[in-house]
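Session log. Operator J.P. requested a structure for one protein chain; no other inputs attached. Running the standard single-chain path with C-alpha cell output.
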Amino acid sequence: MASDHSLSRAPVLMRTGTDCVSLGYRGRFNGLSIPPNRRVVRSMSFVDSILVIEDDPRIASVVADALRDTARWVRRAGSAAEGFAAVREMPPDLIVLDLGLPDLSGPAVCRKLREETRVPIVVLTARHGEREMVQVLNAGADDYVTKPFSAPVFVARVQAQLRRSQLYRSHAPDTIRIGDLVLDLGRRVATRGGRELGLTPVEWH
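Structure written below.
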C-alpha cells in the first residue's frame, strides 16, 4: 500500500521498452515497475509521449500497458495540479484524463489544459451521465470513454485522435491572419488589432 500512496503523490514516468523497468524523473519522482511480460519492444510507435492523469495507480498501469504499442513513454500524474506541471515540463502528444481527480472537477481540468496545450484529450471515467459528458466535451475534451472499457477499442480511439492531430499539425500553420485578426494556434490566443479576445475552449473547437 505504501507504493500506491507514493505513486498518487507524484508524476510517474513509465517506459514501454526493454531497457528501463523502474524509471522516474531522477531524484524527484518514483518509478513504476513494469513486469517482464509487459516490457515489449515494437518497431514503431505512433508518438513519443502520452500523459495519463489518473489518481488510481492500478488503472494508470492498465492504461500504460494498453498503450505500449502506441507511445514510447507513458507518464502518470495523480492529480490535476501534477498533470498541469507535467504538461509544462514535458508536453505530451496526447492526454488521457480521469474525471474523478481529488483536486479539481473534470470540466475545470479540461478548460485549464486547453489553456496549456492543444493536444488531444481522451477522457476515461466511470461516470456515464450524459450531462457530464456534454460538459467535458464542451470544455475541450476530444473523446469520452467510460469504465469498464475494452482495451482494443480504447487504444483504437486514442490512435484515431493521434492520427487526426498529426494530420492537422502537418497541414496547419502556427499563426493564421485574417485582416487585423490573428490566431496563434500554438498558444491558443486570438487577438484583434493587438488586443486579446479571450476565446473559450469551445470557440477554439
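Operator note: Residues 1-10, 16-44 have pLDDT under 50 and may be disordered.
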